[in-house]
UniProtKB/TrEMBL annotation:
It is found in: Cell membrane. This is MFS transporter. The chain crosses the membrane at residues 42-61, 73-96, 102-121, 128-150, 156-178, 199-224, 236-254, 266-283, 289-309, 330-352, 358-377. The keyword Membrane applies. Residues 4-382 form the Major facilitator superfamily (MFS) profile domain. It comes from the Bacteria. InterPro entries: MFS, MFS_dom, MFS_Efflux_Transporters, MFS_trans_sf. GO terms for cellular component: plasma membrane. Its main location: membrane. It is a multi-pass membrane protein. Keywords: Cell membrane, Membrane, Transmembrane, Transmembrane helix.
Length: 404
């Protein structure tokens, strides 16, 4: 794998750290600014919304520059946002800093996926995308726990300053290692927008929303579920999330490897198994060992869908994939927000802390149905294409005979 993928992975590590580390630092941030925990939660919501809207916005704004330069500009924006958060004199300024940093998120992964795929041979594209996303998954294992520890011991502002430093490292790596890769000649914004007329692109994005949404339906409420149902101490939740992160790392690499060999079968297996494991989590949540194993599997199966889904979008939006790739990153965050809301509804309805697992199972199963539908439509399209080609050849044969 090219060294350029390491630079992309470092940038992804920084972005993944800043996205999730705030969850472990909400009490400290709320205390410093004198706001409630729910109010501090807007730092999470604001970031997610920034990713959703920033992904297409920043990608469109970057259509006039090369992909390498756009990646560098996005890392610069990421650095500015985290520095603003680190020195914020008020909660509103901190929120602005979070939104500024989030604007880089979707476009970085979207454009980065295109760059990563272009760096390698066609049969290694999903593996290259997975290598970049490894930075995001490792952030959940190393960056988030370490950032939380730093924030709790040295202050949350130090954490965001360190994350800004990671951004500087990622920027330097991109500038040094990523080759200058201009946009394909003749590709304009209208070509990028035309990709959304392809039903296969839309189906892949819907699978992204539902599939990874299934993961977050359960993981969003992991703390109350494990402490109230599983009997874990509050301090154990951090290590359970590390197990979840380790599962993400493994699933991401496996998904990338096998998606290059058999993309749709990989999606069938991962989405089907994810639906089953999420349903079983309503039972295994009551046993600490079984719960720990299940959480790891959820991370692995959930992230095993990421490289194949991202590659599916790139394949179907062939020729003008950048905007579609970035929007698919926003689809992950849409799924996270949707599933967290649905999970909260079933808990509020009195169905218990394990009820979100059933929500997640239904969402993952729905994604599997869409995957089967997508493959069926693709086969039908290919059959029609062969039939048309055969008819054309048959009609052309007599003409060729006359010529002779």
């Amino acid at each position: 794998m090219p060294l350029a993928l390491l630079a992309l992975a470092i940038g992804a590590f920084g972005i993944g750290t800043t996205e999730f580390v705030i969850m472990g630092l909400l009490p400290e941030v709320a205390g410093d600014f004198g706001v409630s925990i729910p109010t501090a939660g807007f730092l999470v919501t604001g970031y997610a919304l920034g990713v959703m809207f920033g992904a297409p916005l920043m990608t469109v704004l970057g259509t006039k520059v090369s992909r390498k330069r756009m990646l560098m500009l996005l890392m610069g924006l990421f650095i500015v946002g985290n520095l603003l958060s680190a020195v914020a004199p008020s909660f509103s300024v901190m929120l602005i800093g979070r939104v500024v940093a989030s604007l880089a998120h979707g476009a970085f992964f979207g454009i980065g996926s295109v760059v990563a795929a272009d760096l390698v041979a066609p049969d290694k594209k999903a593996g290259a995308i997975a290598m970049m996303f490894t930075g995001l998954t490792v952030a959940n294992v190393v960056g988030v726990p370490l950032g939380t520890l730093i924030g709790q011991s040295a202050g949350w502002r130090v954490t965001f300053a360190v994350v800004a430093g990671l951004g500087v490292l990622g920027l330097a790596g991109i500038a040094r290692l990523v080759p200058d890769m201009p946009k394909a000649e003749g590709v304009r914004l209208r070509h990028e927008l035309a990709a959304f007329k392809n039903v296969q692109v839309l189906l892949a994005m819907a699978m992204t929303v539902l599939g990874f949404g299934g993961v977050f339906a359960a993981i969003t409420y992991i703390a109350p579920m494990m402490t109230h149902v599983g009997g874990f101490a509050e301090g154990s939740v951090t290590w359970l999330l590390v197990l979840f992160g380790l599962g993400m790392v493994g699933g991401n690499l496996v998904g990338g490897r096998y998606a290059d060999r058999a993309l749709m079968p990989m999606l069938y297996v991962s989405l089907g198994a994810l639906a089953v494991v999420l349903a079983l989590f309503t039972l295994t949540a009551h046993n600490q060992v079984a719960a720990a194993v299940t959480i790891t599997l959820i991370g692995a199966l959930g992230f095993a869908t990421v490289p194949p889904l991202q590659k599916r979008v790139l394949d179907q939006a062939h020729g003008a994939p950048t905007l579609a790739s970035a929007v698919n990153i926003g689809a992950f965050n849409l799924g996270n927000a949707l599933s967290a809301w649905l999970g909260g509804l079933v808990i509020a309805a009195g169905l218990g802390y394990t009820a979100p697992n059933w929500v997640g199972a239904v969402l993952a199963a729905a994604a599997l149905v869409l995957a089967v539908l997508s493959a069926a439509l693709e086969r039908r399209s290919e059959t029609r294409g062969r039939a048309v080609t055969g008819v054309s050849a048959e009609h052309a044969q007599p003409a060729a005979a006359v010529t002779h």
